[in-house]
Design a protein that fits this description.
alpha/beta, kinase, D-allose kinase activity, 5-stranded mixed beta sheet, Nucleotidyltransferase, domain 5, Allose kinase, ATPase_NBD, transferase, 2 domains
């Protein structure tokens, strides 16, 4: 039996999970990201984290591919980190290649949001030709699926919807630019709004107790306009919506969908677009990374080798 390791790296937590060739999952583990990223040599810390996880598992010796999910900009060949704001020590380093050498295992990587998207795509009855994924959490995650594959762009930086400029927005973005839509349309913005306007309200209850506030109504409408802009450009069959913010209690998903559709060009893509809510959970990034590792491994096998990848479908 062959196994695949998915490593989902976030600013707060790093999650690890194994999957076998029949897509059964094992050994979910979550550690704080600063526990290794805060070391003098974060890359060595990550290598040790993965090595310890594999050593502790009875299946570790059978792992044939490791997949990292990173919330940053990667090179087009997915070998080098170009920009990872919360771990700048990894910037401009061939992280996949260096980890492969240290672990003695093939290591590949992609944007974490593509792993969320891949999980959701494999829940559909059939893989579409074109789909867009929007995952709103701390930031505005965006994944693009074009012509039956993820689209990375000419330099690896495609899908940065959160960094389109918004007129009249003076806010400085962590990316270093001013006016990015993500500064007003993200979990980070909601956290700041809560601190200023609803300090006594639990974050999870913001939309339950304050959803009618003009600022939060505009937050939802602004998100809808932003998403509609991308849908009008790409004309996808599916729009997948997920992320922690959209899963908050009381979040007005119906209003968001209305706002998106209100701004779509007719008759298409307005009439043809299917909007699907993501099934994202705490483990989804790891699970999607495992599936992506298997997909990458299968692509390297000679045709007719019997390694065709099973794809789970929605029951």
């Amino acid at each position: 039996m062959q196994y695949f390791l998915g490593v989902d790296i976030g600013g707060t937590n790093t999650r690890l999970m194994l999957m076998d060739s029949q897509q059964k999952f094992y050994g979910y583990q979550k550690v704080t990201t600063p526990s290794w990223a805060g070391l003098n040599d974060p890359l060595s810390g990550l290598q040790q984290l993965i090595a310890n996880y594999l050593a502790a598992s009875s299946k570790g010796s059978q792992v044939v591919r490791v997949m990292l999910g990173l919330p940053g900009i990667l090179s087009r060949d997915r070998q080098r980190v170009l920009s990872l704001p919360f771990i700048p020590a990894l910037d401009d380093r061939p992280v996949a290649q260096m980890l492969s050498a240290a672990l003695g295992l093939p290591v590949v990587m992609d944007k974490d949001v593509n792993h969320l998207m891949w999980w959701d795509l494999t829940r559909l009855a059939h893989l579409p030709d074109v789909a867009v994924g929007i995952y709103l959490g701390t930031g505005l995650g965006n994944s693009l699926w074009l012509n039956q594959d993820f689209y990375h762009g000419a330099h690896g930086a495609a899908g940065e919807l959160g960094h389109i400029p918004l007129a009249g927005n003076p806010a400085l973005c962590p990316c270093g630019k001013t006016g990015c839509v993500e500064t007003l349309t993200s979990g980070n913005w909601l956290t700041g709004w809560k601190r200023q306007h609803a300090a006594e309200t639990a974050f999870a209850d913001l939309f339950v107790l304050h959803g009618e506030h003009a600022d939060l109504v505009e937050f939802v409408d602004r998100l809808g306009r932003t998403i509609a802009s991308e849908v009008n450009i790409l004309d996808p069959q599916y729009l997948l919506l997920g992320g922690g913010v959209l899963m908050m209690r009381g979040f007005p998903l119906t209003r968001l969908e209305q706002q998106i559709r209100q701004h779509l060009r007719g008759p298409q893509p307005a009439n043809g677009l299917q909007i699907v809510q993501s099934g994202v959970t705490d483990e989804t990034g790891c699970r999607g990374a495992c599936l992506a590792a298997q997909r990458d491994y299968q692509r390297t096998q000679p045709q007719g080798s019997g390694m065709e990848m099973p794809v789970r479908r929605k029951a």
